[in-house]
Design the sequence.
């Protein structure tokens, strides 16, 4: 059902910023307002008054029933969908020369869709809705904390499954299959980013996935999971070594653990995001890995896998101050030393009572028997 | 390894269209040229000469080794990555006032990334690379046909798994977990679009996913899967009824089967994509469902789940002519009758020897015992 409180707060911010309407094209804000998972949703939130849902004719009755929203424009084709959107925009503009319409411009908004929207509505000034939604979504309410805690429990099951299946001879794809299946069986609806099972030379990669590569004895393996529960994400990453680690591998792992701990200890309301980085950087530099450190060890998370602040993508976000009630991860950066391997150890935290509380404890050993 | 033949053909088209370089930001074209799966790849293909890979320092050695590419610019941060790209662009422009650079603007290119690229390179005119890549990728070579046939076999396993697990009392999420796991175990690397298990009132939805909804006796269930094998997709959808169908459900299902068959029979080189639609539309109209028909029953497919022509998204694509050697699906449109249910029956075909050949046969019964 429509969350009237969230709607009211978003509309107040929209009016402050002279944004006439928000055109929702992505699932995250749709879930935020309507609490319902729908693939490729379309809705228009005016600066005042009830939202308007744009929906396929086969979904009309169910949308009205489940959302408690009276105004649904129904389409049967893309052409009609565009007409519906343009029609609502015209009605809204009334006598006005032009409208300022917010659109989300993050990972889930394809460039062509934005172009299509602008071509269909030439009288509209499109603005980034991040100014309204990012701050609003930064602090999580109790319901959101509960959903993310559930997502974190699902993530832990994914990591524990990895520890159980990783052994010489298994492929990354096979391990990925077991992780995804276990997380699904635990109630997850899927993943927000591809599951990483980055083994051996792939452990030092910046991004990840699973491939046909066979896991070998001595491989370091970075496993990173971001399952969703009712739209909400939690992020958990652990690094393993298959068999006995070399001294260099063990040193890399222990350094990362200390760096993550330093980052976690630095978390408190009022500091800037980059101070978490600075705390971790000191540990890496003292260990002689300063050059190998990728700044941006912490990002926020919620209905999207990376929410503001997300300094590895928007470096300016490193100046954003932490606030009580936000969610954040610590451990996002990979420590990558070619010839040795890569390490990433990441947990999701709730900033509560002035410090970081992990959503779940996930104690798995670095060294896996083989 | 770099596919020099594909590169040569792309570069010839780029020169014809006065495009100086192609900035690759998406996995599909990266796989097309380099045959390697990498999450968030970055590469620049100039109109002449060898490509330049932009990669994270931890991946440099392995990228050079596996791709056989000499020129890799290495970054450690997003800032450095942007500098690398800008540097290459400057080198390329030489004495030129401005460069025309192609970028893919489809589902996998986020709006913000394109904005970031334009801001970092104000001297550049950004053009849609679709004009180069869409036609190039339309006709599949033997290697691509083999990979897509493998993807289709994995899709069939997904559909057969759905038939085995669908019964009253199971949730859509649970069925989805089994489908994804079975497809992974069969060699798939994941899915290109979320698995649909749209049951009961959700069967008539335009898009899909799996939810916590419990499958009930009498539900129609649309199952739609698009697994990937080494980057390549195949699309397969089937509709089931859990228990004995009502006469209206059976009529809807049989009508769709006849419409799909009419669409398949219409496929031949030289006709326009919309003629497949017209053949299906006649069947739906004669059955009294003409108003419920969503035009766009056929789209192409390959390294992306919808490739040109994709008439439900770009209506003008309905005028594109079919060519020998292309891949296409027939059955993309949902037939949605509120109160009865929805049907979608979709297969992937290779247009060969003048007619449509299904990549796999997938004979599952409409009625599931319960």
Sequence:
């Amino acid at each position: 059902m429509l969350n009237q409180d969230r709607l009211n707060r978003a509309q107040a911010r929209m009016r402050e910023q002279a944004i006439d309407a928000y055109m929702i094209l992505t699932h995250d804000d749709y879930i935020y307002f309507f609490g319902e998972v729908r693939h490729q949703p379309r809705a228009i939130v005016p600066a005042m008054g009830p939202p308007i849902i744009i929906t396929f004719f086969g979904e009309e009755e169910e949308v009205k029933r489940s959302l408690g929203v009276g105004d649904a424009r129904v389409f049967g084709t893309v052409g009609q969908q565009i007409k519906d959107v343009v029609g609502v925009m015209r009605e809204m503009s009334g006598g006005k020369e032009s409208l300022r319409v917010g659109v989300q411009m993050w990972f889930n908004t394809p460039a062509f869709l934005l172009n299509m929207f602008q071509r269909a509505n030439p009288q509209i000034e499109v603005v980034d809705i991040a100014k309204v939604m990012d701050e609003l979504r930064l602090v999580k309410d109790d319901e959101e904390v509960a959903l993310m805690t559930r997502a974190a429990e699902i993530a832990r099951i994914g990591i524990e499954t990895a520890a159980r299946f990783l052994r010489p001879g298994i492929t990354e794809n096979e391990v990925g299959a077991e992780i995804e299946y276990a997380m699904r069986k635990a109630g997850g609806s899927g993943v927000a980013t591809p599951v990483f099972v980055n083994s051996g030379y792939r452990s030092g990669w910046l991004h990840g996935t699973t491939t046909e590569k066979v896991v070998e004895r001595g491989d370091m393996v970075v496993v990173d999971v971001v399952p969703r529960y009712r739209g909400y994400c939690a992020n958990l990453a652990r690094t393993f070594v298959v068999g006995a680690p070399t001294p260099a591998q063990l040193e890399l792992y222990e350094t990362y653990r200390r760096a993550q701990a330093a980052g976690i200890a630095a978390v408190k309301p009022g500091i800037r995001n980059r101070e978490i980085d600075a705390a971790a950087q000191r540990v890496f530099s003292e260990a002689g890995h300063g050059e190998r450190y990728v700044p941006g060890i912490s990002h926020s998370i919620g209905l999207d896998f990376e929410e503001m602040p997300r300094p590895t993508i928007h470096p300016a976000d490193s100046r954003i101050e932490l606030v009580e009630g936000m969610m954040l991860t610590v451990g996002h950066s990979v420590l990558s030393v070619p010839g040795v391997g890569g390490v990433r150890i990441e947990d999701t935290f709730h900033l509560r009572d002035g410090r970081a509380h992990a959503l779940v404890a996930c104690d798995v050993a670095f060294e896996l028997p083989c």
Chain A touches chain B through 60 residues (CB under 8 Å). The longest helix of chain A spans residues 142-165. Chain A has a mean pLDDT of 93.
